[in-house]
Amino acid sequence: TTLHQIAVIPGDGIGREVIEPAMEVLEQAARQWDFTLAWTTYPWSCAYYTEHGHMMPGDGLDRLAESDAIFLGAVGDPSVADDVSLWGLLIPIRRAFDQYVNLRPLRLLRGIDSPLESLGGAVDLLVVRENSEGEYSEAGGRLFAGTSMETAIQESVFTRRGIERIMRYAFDRAEERTGRLVSATKSNGIIHTMPLWDQICGEIGSERPRITVDSYHIDALAAYFVQRPETLDVVVASNLFGDILSDLGAAIVGGIGLAPSANVNPDRTYPSMFEPVHGSAPDIANLGVANPIGQIWTGALMLEHLGHPEAGAAVVAALEDVLADSDIRTQDLGGSASTAEFTRAVLDALRSKRPAFVNHAD
Ligand code: NAD
Ligand code: IPM
Ligand code: MN
């Protein structure tokens, strides 16, 4: 059977609580669909930093490079400054492995009530977030610390190469879906970088006449996410705009505990990294109540990426079965189930989804 090497980084807070449940679900999918996941777990986290003085060892990236995919929970703890934990682990992985696409599908699952009541299950959109440059640049820093002139500067860096590749990727996804693409912009003369973004979007659009492109200012688009999300399909956005839209989008489909995400290296030169949209949620850590849906769904994206789309779809269908056919849900969704109880229900639902070609004796 096919063997996939998976590097696992549970991280901090609820990252450590949702990763094992998700691994259990993926393990079961692997058994049912007849492939093997070989996990190697790395303890790199804020706790690791406190002990060793760095978030990962010097050869950390080399070790991860050996894997077929990276499965990450979340990183961040109040005892360590976020810029230390993020620039020490998460961002170097995204950058070193040229994971320039951050895919964030948003779909209202059966059984989930959107806070936007009128939607009736219609939200199904894909945020394609630029993941390598833009507002998340390394250019800048803090000046005059401790004086009345204290200043912080960060230059946005948008390159033609960076914009072209994310646009092409987004146009391709739009072509496979409904042929509609929305570009998030802010080009009304205020933000210098966005006219270049729009120009390149237009250039690629003229090569792709089958795709309908609308450009919306990010502020107006945020309102459309709430007012008429059912009219949106693929949304391409810069690093920061995409970050904000993905939490907003998650909120309209049930909450950020549900939203999956994939940091993809489309050329497959390097491993891609799969981590949910949410963070380490220090406010609910160690209580065993975190919603594992985001992590499990993220795992389904990983299975798809590894060449097992049917297994991935079955995992998402199992999540939907639990939500639609029972009232088992975690606190964030108004229920009282623990992370473990919800996961058990998902495992039961998945068990009934046998691939047609396998003859199971039991
Ligand atoms: P967060 O996503 O951790 O939490 C925001 C809110 O959503 C909290 O109230 C939290 O309880 C809730 N929430 C999040 N996930 C949930 C889940 N699965 N089930 C139930 N409730 C859930 O965002 P934050 O508070 O802005 O950040 C906390 C820490 O996480 C920071 O250190 C931040 O840097 C880090 N962070 C890491 C990642 C990552 O590693 N990929 C992503 C985002 C934030
Ligand atoms: C996310 C997170 C990260 C981001 C942070 C933790 C750097 O919010 O994955 O959405 O902004 O990319
Ligand atoms: Mn985010």
UniProtKB/TrEMBL annotation:
<keyword id="KW-0520">NAD</keyword>
<dbReference type="InterPro" id="IPR050501">
    <property type="entry name" value="ICDH/IPMDH"/>
</dbReference>
<keyword id="KW-0464">Manganese</keyword>
<protein>
    <recommendedName>
        <fullName>D-malate dehydrogenase (decarboxylating)</fullName>
        <ecNumber>1.1.1.83</ecNumber>
    </recommendedName>
</protein>
<keyword id="KW-0560">Oxidoreductase</keyword>
<dbReference type="GO" id="GO:0046553">
    <property type="term" value="F:D-malate dehydrogenase (decarboxylating) (NAD+) activity"/>
</dbReference>
<dbReference type="GO" id="GO:0000287">
    <property type="term" value="F:magnesium ion binding"/>
</dbReference>
<keyword id="KW-0479">Metal-binding</keyword>
<feature type="domain" description="Isopropylmalate dehydrogenase-like">
    <location>
        <begin position="5"/>
        <end position="346"/>
    </location>
</feature>
<dbReference type="GO" id="GO:0051287">
    <property type="term" value="F:NAD binding"/>
</dbReference>
<dbReference type="InterPro" id="IPR011829">
    <property type="entry name" value="TTC_DH"/>
</dbReference>
<dbReference type="InterPro" id="IPR019818">
    <property type="entry name" value="IsoCit/isopropylmalate_DH_CS"/>
</dbReference>
<dbReference type="Pfam" id="PF00180">
    <property type="entry name" value="Iso_dh"/>
</dbReference>
<dbReference type="InterPro" id="IPR024084">
    <property type="entry name" value="IsoPropMal-DH-like_dom"/>
</dbReference>
<comment type="similarity">
    <text>Belongs to the isocitrate and isopropylmalate dehydrogenases family.</text>
</comment>
